[in-house]
Amino acid sequence: MAITLRATPELVATAWLKTVVGDRVSTTLPKDNSSWAASGFCTLVVAGGTPNLYVPLRDPAIGVDCWAVNPQSQKPPWNKAAALVSAIEAACWEHAAVPQRVTLPAGYPQAQVLSAYTVGEARRIPDDASSYARYSIPGLVIAWTEVPS
Questions:
Q1: C-alpha count within 13 angstroms, C-beta hemisphere, residue 119
Q2: Alpha-carbon distance 125 to 93, whole Å?
Q3: Mean pLDDT of residues grouped by 10 in the chain (149 residues)?
Q4: CA atoms within 13 A on the CB side of 65
Q5: pLDDT recorded at residue 14
């Protein structure tokens, strides 16, 4: 029996965020910060949400952290991390860009993002031991559904 791959909140959120910040998003921060030092990086985690009981509509809350580092300094580059937050917020407000289809990895169906908005203000996370700048968006809600193939 073949297993049918289904879209997941993590995959859809990653794909949507890549349309906003480029290929600088994953569920984990790359260990080699030289690969993202120039541009910053976003990590995400599914923080909550309830799938719709009656229709195949999902709207999970995603926790997003925006990171920046300056390898030549112990001073965190706060403005670079804040710029990633601003880009995500702006993409939520740009209603002409949503809804949109996002492409998931090979073998998964496409997903249609119907809306995206933030819940709660982003906050600065100070005192990182590695001198990374980090802003946290407590909830990015992305409403989506799979696109039938």
A1: 15
A2: 24
A3: 88 96 95 93 95 91 97 94 97 82 93 94 90 96 91
A4: 17
A5: 97
pLDDT at 93: 92
Six-digit token pair at 38? 């120039």
Q: Which residues contact 115 (CB under 8 A, 6 or more apart)?
A: 98, 99, 141, 142, 143
Residue partners of 48: CB distance under 8 A and separation at least 6: 60, 61, 139
- Long-range pairs, 45-53, Cβ under 8 A, ≥24: 46/9, 46/10, 46/13, 47/138, 47/139, 48/139, 49/9, 49/141
What pLDDT was estimated at residue 128?
80
A 10 A CB-CB count for 110 gives 15
For residues 114 and 131, give the distance between their C-alpha atoms in angstroms, rounded to a whole number.
Answer: 37
Instruction: Tell me what pLDDT residue 113 has.
Output: 95
Please provide residue 81's backbone torsions phi and psi, each rounded to the nearest 5 degrees.
-65, -40
